[in-house]
């Protein structure tokens, strides 16, 4: 018996806007437009500047992966508990955590725990995401959009990571997996987003969740670069 189907069907019908999307815009377009500014801002974070200049240190790279690892493991557990509500979207997630853990081990990242302020911010972010999910907020979909979409930039990032003298090739599994496998996976995610009808308030919460995810990551990246 498929529990997710049952629980979806047992929900009372929700009134929807005529085309199921606020202002007739597909959710993906709302997400892309609503997060353009925060995406541009994160691209310009000091950590990424160092990456593009090939001066990213091994320690900074280790911190970046630690942030991604906590973010992915949290979202994967959130998505698992949320899956009954959006199985076609969240069922697409495959774990990124093993690749991240492998890279962290190869880097010897335990030598470089996150700075205290970054760790506090990361734990606060984690609590916020978990609380949101247990309150049943669809913001989790926006957060997953950000993390999945990050893989598009990974195609550019991996080229630069390979030119950073302190970043070893054997610790690039996560970024190379993102860069290699992305097109099919992102396409499937967008397809599922497009197929899902959302009420206006859900869409607003989803875009807000995505913006909060970008902002938290950006803050975290700033807190872990070496001054
Ligand atoms: C140096 C850093 C980055 C670069 C150069 C970069 C670059 C890009 C590029 C070129 C695209 C468009 C790809 C395409 O349409 O085929 C893209 C999309 C995207 N990136 Fe980034 N990115 C970076 C960092 C990030 C980070 C850190 C995140 C989030 C953790 C992120 C999230 C996204 C998302 C969600 C999209 C999809 C936008 C859409 O809906 O079309 N990016 N990025």
Tell me what the structure shows.
This protein has 227 residues and is mostly helical. The protein has a single domain (29-223), classed as Heme Oxygenase, Chain A (Up-down Bundle), CATH 1.20.910. Helices cover 70% and strands 0% of the residues. The chain is built from eleven helices and no strands. It starts with a helix and ends with a helix. The model is unreliable at 1-20 (pLDDT under 50). It binds protoporphyrin IX containing FE.
Describe what is shown at a glance:
The chain is mainly alpha-helical and 227 residues long. Helices cover 70% and strands 0% of the residues. The structure holds protoporphyrin IX containing FE.
Question: Topology, pairings included?
Answer:
Blueprint (H helix, E strand, L loop, with lengths): L2 H8 L16 H8 L1 H8 L2 H7 L5 H25 L4 H4 L6 H11 L8 H19 L4 H23 L11 H23 L4 H24 L4
Protoporphyrin IX containing FE binds next to α2, α3, α4 and α9.
Spans of at least 5 consecutive residues whose pLDDT stays below 50 are 1-20
Q: What is the distance, rounded to the nearest whole angstrom, between the alpha carbons of the first and last residues?
A: 56 Å
Helix content: over 70%
Instruction: Indicate how many domains the architecture comprises.
Output: 1
* Category by helix and strand content: mainly alpha
CATH topology annotation: Heme Oxygenase, Chain A
| Associated small molecules | protoporphyrin IX containing FE
- How many helices in DSSP terms? 11
**Percentage of residues in DSSP E strands:** under 5%
Query: Can you tell me the CATH architecture?
Result: Up-down Bundle
Radius of gyration from the alpha-carbon trace, in angstroms: 18 Å
Query: Could you state the CATH homologous superfamily?
Result: Heme oxygenase-like
CATH class: Mainly Alpha
Oligomer: single chain
Report the sheet with the most strands, covering strand number, pairing sense and barrel closure. Answer: none
Compressed to H and E, one letter per element, the order equals: HHHHHHHHHHH
**Coarse morphology:** globular
The number of strands is 0
